[in-house]
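Deliverable D2.4 — example input (structure tokens):
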């Protein structure tokens, strides 16, 4: 059994609502984020960091991810301002 890490980050409430509508039929936000993060680490998809936007109304997203995935994401997170920035970018890409 692998250990997991709890990650929690804030996103704009409007983005969260849009992502939830799109991703719920596909298994939910957490499942989608984990799948896309794994694909990102394996270089199967590329992500472009978005400049941090001021969040007016925020929604907190929490999920558990495998420690190995978290470590791999940390190695690629500098351009995104941290692992949370990678997950925010994945969500933004899911609604665009």
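Example output (designed residues):
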């Amino acid at each position: 059994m692998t250990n997991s890490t709890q990650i929690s980050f804030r996103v704009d409430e409007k983005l969260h609502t849009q992502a939830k509508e799109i991703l719920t039929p596909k298994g939910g936000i957490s499942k989608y984020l984990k799948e896309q993060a794994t694909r990102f680490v394996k270089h199967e998809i590329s992500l472009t960091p978005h400049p941090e936007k001021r969040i007016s109304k925020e929604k907190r997203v929490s999920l558990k991810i495998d420690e190995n995935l978290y470590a791999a994401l940390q190695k690629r997170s500098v351009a995104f301002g941290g692992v949370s920035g990678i997950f925010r970018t994945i969500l933004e890409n899911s609604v665009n």
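The mean pLDDT is 91.
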